[in-house]
Amino acid sequence: MDIKTVIIDHDKTSKELLRAYLENDKDIIITCDFEEALKAGDFISENLPNLVIADISYKTDETIEFISKITTSFKSLKVIALSYDINSELVVKTLRSGAREFLIKPLIEKDLMAVIKKIKDMIEGNVDDTTKCKVISTFSNKGGLGKTCIATNIAVEIANLTKEKVALVDLNMQMGDVTTFLNLNPVFDTSYVIRNLDKIDEASILSSLEQYKNTSLYVLSDPSNLEQAQNITEENITNLINILKNVFSYVIIDTTSSFEGKTISALDNSDLVLLVSTINIPAVRNCQRCLDLFETLEYPKDKIKLVINRYIENDDIKAEDFEGALQHNIYFKIPNDYFTSINSVNKGVPISDINPNSNIAQSYKELASLLSDNFTYNQQSLKSTKKNKNIVNIFKEKK
Predict the structure, then answer these.
(1) Using an 8 Å Cβ cutoff, are 337 and 125 in contact?
(2) Residues 313, 337 contacting (CB under 8 angstroms)
(3) Which candidate, 46, 53, 104, 94, places its Cα nearest to that of 74?
(4) pLDDT tens per residue, range 251-293
(5) Which residues contact 266 (CB under 8 A, 6 or more apart)?
(6) Would you state the torsion angle of the CA atoms of residues 23, 28, 30, 34, taken in this order, to the nearest 10 degrees?
(7) Beta strand 217-220 pairing with 210-211
(8) What pTM, to 2 d.p., does this model score?
(9) Backbone phi, then psi, for 75, in 5-degree steps?
(10) How many other CB atoms are there within 10 angstroms of residue 392's CB atom?
């Protein structure tokens, strides 16, 4: 199938590079290119391309508004946005305008072609992007590191960003706090849904989960008593996740901080595992144990995303040292902001409701963008990992 494509890019060199990359895909037919968005409007209306690739670095607000107009007018049109800027507000604003993907410039060919393949599958009907589900679990083998806070806030932000159905599931069977973080009092819980899995369809699953305000986020709380939690099996967890995947575009799971069978079942069925940690010597040992277990379970290395919570830029132990000790890259760092975080917990609202302009609120928006299927970092936008022998030696001495 020919994918009729329009390029909008003010930078001549960038445009030529983009053309060179796209020429390697025989299905991509570049019908026209433009220096700015408004000049492309009439051509798009008359020729109805399948794909528009638009650089928003030039006349940013004007181009984002243009993307909103064309995606509203032409529902089948797919848009890939490009930019040199990775500001989280810009990413969120662009994706909300209707862009299906966001790529950082300068473009890396493999990143671009991976996104092109996804877009082609959608256009050709090979993938239904409204029903394909991504399952993301948060895990740490020690309590008190902010795992539930991370699960709750990314679930809220992904729902706000994508407008797609998101399920937030509390699988901390004995001490779940998800509903407390969002000030909810659900009628049904995990135990009820699992007991009725054979009777549940899409309508009943949505009514069994608690909708968060007027968003596309739905919450499934932990069982109301210990006996109900003990009756839930590993197979029940797998079946529950499979049912949720048929209804939701994203399933966010807050697991318990132990390597029990039900937790392993949730991790097995996850596309991504966010391994939550802080940066200190005991954390190195705890993370190493987790990484060793994940290797034993034969999880792909890129399934495990190391997320540092309460990150302090000028701390004694640097992020690069931590990475070197673990031989595992840090995926994301959430800044330390105790007062905003505790205020959020005490009021039972997301961090973005407390102070949307704070660094930590912006950080959660950026993490949500990364975890959604719409945003791709290239390697040049990430800092290179430096291995420091000092912390490695300290770790070995502590064993």
Answers:
(1) no
(2) no
(3) 46
(4) 999 999 888 899 999 999 999 999 999 998 888 899 999 999 9
(5) 137, 171, 237, 241, 253, 255
(6) -100
(7) antiparallel
(8) 0.71
(9) -60, -30
(10) 16
